Amino acid sequence: MQPVGSHMSISGGVELAFARGEEVGCTAMQIFTKNASQWRAKPISAESAAQFKENWEASSIGPVIAHDTYLINLAATDEEKLEKSKRAFADELMRCHQLGISGLVMHPGSHLGEGEEAGLQKVAASLSGILADSPDDVTVLLENTAGQGTNLGYRFEHLAKIMDLVPQVDFGVCFDTCHAFAAGYDLSTEAGYAEVMDEFDRLVGTEKIHVFHVNDCKKPCGSRVDRHDHIGQGTIGETGFGCLMRDERFLRIPKILETPKGDDNEWDLKNLALLRRLAGEA
């Protein structure tokens, strides 16, 4: 079976996420390693890290991915905020290292009026400096975005540009289906899905995809509005997700939900069941 799952809460401690993931049948999982709405966080204790690894080993969950805090902007125009973002991202990488998590998803950032080229240059320079002194067992996964406001990363060319500007780093990609669709990449039909993936392969390389965020989209293709919907309930629809779930290139790539969970995780259960049915596993 393909590794599929959801973003799970770390309330009470990162080590508690596994029990929550198993409750809904996750075979893969995404977490924050700290409170995503705060800059600072209590360090991960040796005891907590050990329990996290023990719970992981004892669980039925395979790949675990981390997502960095949304406060970080490695293209910030204010120097103080930029330095704060750099320190926070370096800390996120170290937290992943402590927990044995090999992939950290990050949004490229927002240029805040300086222009896309300047923003991409700043993101690349920030990453280059941070990663020179960071653990080498954590891969930075650049996530494509919907392109709201001045957000970078909504074109595949943006991801390729960052990789080209920091050639000494082996980046991966987190491919978000909702973000891609909102940015104008039509995944809703078989032909559209094939065309989008061909373009991604040409510009970036499908082998760079380490994880998918599987989210349907509430808004039209090209709207550049990031609003997640349940699988098959939005403007992408079941056809697009069926193409993804049956794509032989990605059978071993984790696919993570970032959709509302509902009462008693009812929507996680429904969405995961539908993904498995679309994959032909149920």
- The second-level CATH architecture is Alpha-Beta Barrel
Low-confidence stretches: none
What amount of the residues lies in strands? 5-15%
Widest beta sheet: strand line-up: 1-2-3-4-5-6-7-10
Helicity, as a percent range: 25-40%
The count of DSSP E runs of length 2 or more, i.e. the number of strands, is 10
Structural class: alpha/beta
CATH topology: TIM Barrel
The CATH superfamily appears as Divalent-metal-dependent TIM barrel enzymes
Shape: globular
Assembly type of the chains comes to single chain
N- to C-terminal separation? 10 Å
Instruction: Please tally the helical runs, counting DSSP H or I stretches of 4 or more residues.
Output: 9
| Mean residue pLDDT | 97
Would you kindly provide a written description of the structure presented here, covering whatever features stand out?
This protein is α/β, with parallel strands linked by helices. The chain has one domain (4-278): Alpha-Beta Barrel (TIM Barrel). The protein has 9 helices and 10 strands. It has helices at 17-23, 46-58, 79-99, 116-131, 156-165, 177-182, 190-203, 237-245, 266-278, and strands at residues 4-7, 28-31, 64-67, 103-106, 139-143, 172-176, 209-213, 216-217, 228-229, 255-257. It has an 8-stranded parallel beta barrel with strand order 1-2-3-4-5-6-7-10. Helix 3 (79-99) crosses helix 4, helix 4 packs across helix 5 and helix 7 crosses helix 8. It starts with a strand and ends with a helix.
